[in-house]
Specification:
Blueprint lengths: L2 H6 L12 H17 L2 H20 L3 H31 L2 H49 L17 H17 L8 H9 L12 H9 L6 H34 L6 H32 L17 H7 L2 H16 L2 H39 L3 H30 L7 H23 L3 H13 L18 H22 L4 H7 L2 H18 L17
Helix pairs in contact: 2-3, 3-7, 4-5, 4-6, 4-7, 5-6, 7-8, 9-10, 9-17, 9-19, 10-15, 10-16, 12-13, 13-14, 14-15, 15-16
Length: 544
């Protein structure tokens, strides 16, 4: 029996969840103990070895793709640095009139390196993740035009986390090209930055200057870091097991058999899935950040209480923050600040004014962002629709912003009043739930069908009553989920007001701290959705 089988009872995917017994009672404790026994100079190498072993356990021989990505960015970074050095030496010796042409020539060489790295990295991602989707659609088009030609649909095994580590890899290449980070000649440090086991499955998407040096200069595990990290991990475990996994039965049933459910159930399922997705993903981020905190590494936050957002634009600044920052820095700004877009903005500003003029270039960049965002999440039309849905909402918000201000002024409405803020938050939550319904639907047609029913058949009935036997969700589940959501809401409100609950808890009396800790553990044990009748949800974002 292999090591993977020993740890996971033959189920390789079990370690992909940071809440699995294999991870929480096996891999993580073993890693912490062995890490503590290592001398300081060996700790970073142990973390690298543990991370690669972890990735091998969940992906097997597909770890080769990760190692290939590390090699690509290692040599691309060195190549870019070498060109920059040659440029500086050449321009220092050149006449002033020649420097501009020299800089342009060297910049073109650097752009070639970036493009080459992008082709290799995104080429891997496109081939593994999207080739089947594109082939199916090409075959469909050929059939529509009665062309007697069909391509074989390719099937590839896709490494877990490839969407995340590909973007992390490209961020490093872009940053070296821009000169914001120096090329790292230490391939082991780059490999640890890319493969650190808490983040490899679902992110966050870290930048080199955020975590690389911290990971390479790790120290011994400190008591405070251990306590805070475990607290964060347990809080995430409560979100996952008590809420996300408990909601899975109703979400899975309604979306899988949407034709049998009326519009009322479709609306409930959309809300339940939105809550489930947030609890699953933010709970996983709690586990990721908590695990990193145990080792003394601070990772970037990926959520900032998104359901307090007043607009869709604000929501996406608070939800999956590292993805949004990546899209902003490496797609939105390069597109909007390109020379053609600058010329377009300058021309449009003269004709359309200072508000609508810049919107043209901004809209083109926004379209690219949301097309990429939709496709990044999955190779299906409902994901593309999901991206375009948010593109239209954000663009519409930008266009009507002056009109909204004018109406508020005319009607003497204070946009900072509590009722107005509450209305905005509620509106944003409704729009988000609609978007997530299309996101979760089994296809674009299924999503459109469910959306239509909400407006044309908002009742609560089921065509096939036997379907109810497929899920076990009753009033007790509602009470448990509601109670935990109230707790999470209270913590979120406190954090929104600038009150760090964990710091307050650390400063409280020992009896209070231990009571909260044991209460959290008992809540997970008693109310966690596991055992007969419940199917644990695989990490949702690991599929993206």
């Amino acid at each position: 029996m292999s090591l993977a089988q020993c740890l996971m009872a033959g189920k390789v995917s079990s370690l992909t969840s940071y809440f699995s017994l294999a991870y929480m009672l096996g891999f993580l404790p073993a890693s912490c103990i062995l890490y503590s026994l290592m001398p300081k100079a060996a700790k970073k190498y142990f973390l690298l070895a543990a991370s690669l072993i972890f990735f091998w356990l969940i992906s097997g021989k597909l770890v080769a793709y990760l190692l290939f990505a590390v090699l690509i960015i290692h040599y691309a970074g060195i190549w870019l640095e070498r060109i920059a050095k040659e440029r500086d030496e050449a321009t220092a010796l050149a006449e002033k009139t020649e420097r501009k042409a020299l800089k342009k020539a060297y910049k073109n060489r650097q752009r070639f390196v970036v493009a080459f790295a992008a082709v290799l990295l995104f080429g891997m991602l496109l081939t593994l993740k999207y080739s089947a989707f594109f082939t199916v659609n090409i075959n469909t088009l050929l059939s529509l035009f009665h062309i007697d030609l069909q391509f074989e649909i390719p099937k590839y095994l896709m490494p877990i986390g490839i969407s995340f580590y590909t973007m992390q890899a490209m961020s490093y290449v872009f940053d070296v090209y821009r000169g914001t980070v120096k090329a790292d000649t230490n391939i082991f440090r780059l490999a640890l930055y890319m493969s650190f086991f808490p983040q490899i499955v679902e992110g966050p998407i870290c930048r080199y200057n955020e975590t690389a040096e911290k990971l390479w200069n790790v120290e011994s595990i400190k008591y405070k870091n251990l306590c805070f990290g475990l607290q964060r991990l347990l809080f995430g475990l409560m979100k996952k097991m008590v809420v996300a996994d408990r909601l899975n039965s109703i979400v899975q049933t309604v979306f899988s058999y949407h034709d049998s459910f009326s519009g009322g159930y479709a609306a409930v399922a959309a809300v339940c899935y939105t809550v489930q997705l947030y609890m699953d993903f933010s709970g996983t981020m709690d586990a990721v950040i908590g695990t990193a905190e145990i080792f003394g590494v601070t990772m970037p936050e990926n959520f900032k209480r998104p359901f307090f957002s007043r607009t869709i634009s604000e929501f996406w600044k608070r939800w999956h923050i590292t993805l949004g920052a990546w899209l902003k820095d490496y797609i939105f700004y390069p597109v909007s600040m390109s020379k053609p877009m600058k010329n377009l903005t300058s021309s449009a500003r003269k004709k359309l004014g200072n508000h609508f003029g810049p919107l043209l270039a901004g809209s083109a960049a926004l379209f690219c962002v949301w097309l990429f965002n939709g496709l990044w999440h999955g190779s299906a039309w409902n994901y593309i629709f999901f991206g375009m849905y948010h593109f239209v909402l954000i663009l519409t918000g930008n266009i009507i912003e002056p009109l909204v201000r004018a109406v508020n002024t005319k009607l003497h409405i204070n946009p900072e009043s509590k009722p107005y803020k509450a209305m905005q938050i509620l509106r944003t939550c409704v729009l988000v739930c609609i978007g997530e319904m299309f996101f979760r639907a089994t296809g674009l047609r299924a999503g459109l069908s469910m959306f239509k029913k909400i407006f044309t058949d908002f009742t609560f009935y089921v065509k096939d009553t036997d379907i109810f036997t497929r899920y076990s969700f009753d009033v007790h589940d509602v009470i448990i989920v509601a109670a935990v959501l109230i707790i999470i809401l209270g913590v979120s409100i406190a954090n929104e007001k600038g009150i760090c609950v964990r710091q307050k808890l650390a400063q409280s009396k020992p009896v209070v701290r231990w009571a909260v800790l044991y209460g959290l553990i008992m809540m997970i044990i008693i109310f966690g959705a596991y055992g007969i009748g419940y199917v644990p949800v695989d990490p949702i974002y690991a599929n993206f």
